Amino acid sequence: MATSIFNKDRFNNIQNAKIISDKAFYLVVAAVLFFGFAVNALEVFFLADIIFDFVNTGANIIWFYVIYFVLAIAGVCINAFSRKPLLSFIGYCLVVMPIGAVLALAVPEYSFGVVRSAFLVTALLTAVFGLLAVLYPRVFYSMWKVLFVSLLIALIWSLVAMLTGAYFSSGYVWLDWIVVLIFCCYIGFDIALAKNRPKTLDNAVDSACGLYLDIINVFLRLLIIFGDRD
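RE: above sequence
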């Protein structure tokens, strides 16, 4: 048995939680993930014009980002600290909806070929790193601190490059690939964590939320890469 602190599942008190079967656990994870992606797809198809008009009206872009960060941060906190499946799911929805609004702004700006390529490569990378996590869970357990520090450095570097304008040159495409690799490793980490967690309904929702964020970030970065950093 792995000796990681996550084996004790310190972030989830399951004293009074009902344990479900492994099959039910993974079905819930898959269903919650599918729900999030379906909501995002609906936002892209039906709300893109509304969101675009809102953002491009006066100072609404500021309100857009304020609402985005408030909802996303609140959703992550609710999902992470709640011990009740329904409340965790509400937190998950608060994460999904604002990210869907960002996708509704971003996806229509790219051609169908770019979006399709980003989707297919994201699916392939998710499958590959998911398989690696099942085969070598201890490897992903051991790298969580390195992943956190690496992602923080990469995001700060990206922000500085954006502010200086250098990020939008083709010479910085390597930075996006590094971020893609980091989030792929996070996919492996979250799958390994889900595999070793006590199989409760709340943990299933929490695992789905973590995987959702990993996969969406991979997809968005691949959009930037395949779209020539537009």
